[in-house]
Design goal:
Largest sheet: 3 strands, antiparallel
Number of strands: 6
CATH topology of the largest domain: Immunoglobulin-like
Strand order of the largest sheet: 1-2-5
Distance between the termini: 74 Å
Helix content: 25-40%
Order of helices and strands: HHEEEEEE
Number of domains: 2
CATH architecture of the largest domain: Sandwich
Number of helices: 2
Structural class: alpha+beta
CATH class of the largest domain: Mainly Beta
Length: 143
């Protein structure tokens, strides 16, 4: 598309302040390149976020109840959801009033054909505790 012609005075002012047909074409190319860059970045982020969801472990743990047995033991009940037949280990902890960890135990859960299972374990503590909780669960190799 041909550029419209401007008067010599308008051309002189445009050249003085850098508004020529050449700079407009350059600016248009830069804007298109920047837009394409943004599209590529968003597409890569979308693919990465989607693959991160797919490649997740699929293991979740929900704390149930906890019972302070005595000054050195806390019983923790929890539910684990994992793929059937998966080897899973969980870290269970006991906590004091100020939320410091007073006892910690890793337990290896047996494989099962069920996806959701409930467990109860007793954690030995170093000082009196007021609560117990499942810290995390992960996929583990079978014994």
């Amino acid at each position: 598309m041909p550029e419209p012609t401007a008067s010599p005075a308008a051309q002189a002012i445009g050249e003085r302040y850098g508004r020529t047909a050449r700079t407009r074409r350059r600016d248009r190319r830069l804007l298109i390149a920047f837009g394409a860059f943004i599209v590529v970045v968003l597409a890569c982020w979308t693919v990465w976020a989607g693959l991160d969801q797919v490649s997740g472990t699929g293991i979740s743990a929900d704390s149930g109840s906890d019972t302070v047995v005595d000054s050195q033991h806390v019983r923790v009940s929890f539910t684990v959801t994992a793929d059937a037949g998966a080897s899973v280990a969980c870290a269970v902890e006991a906590k004091a009033v100020d939320f410091t960890v007073t006892g910690w135990k890793v337990i290896q859960l047996p494989k099962s054909s069920k996806t959701t299972r409930s467990f109860t374990t007793t954690v030995r503590t170093m000082q009196p505790s007021v609560a117990g909780d499942v810290d995390s669960c992960w996929s583990s190799s079978s014994r």
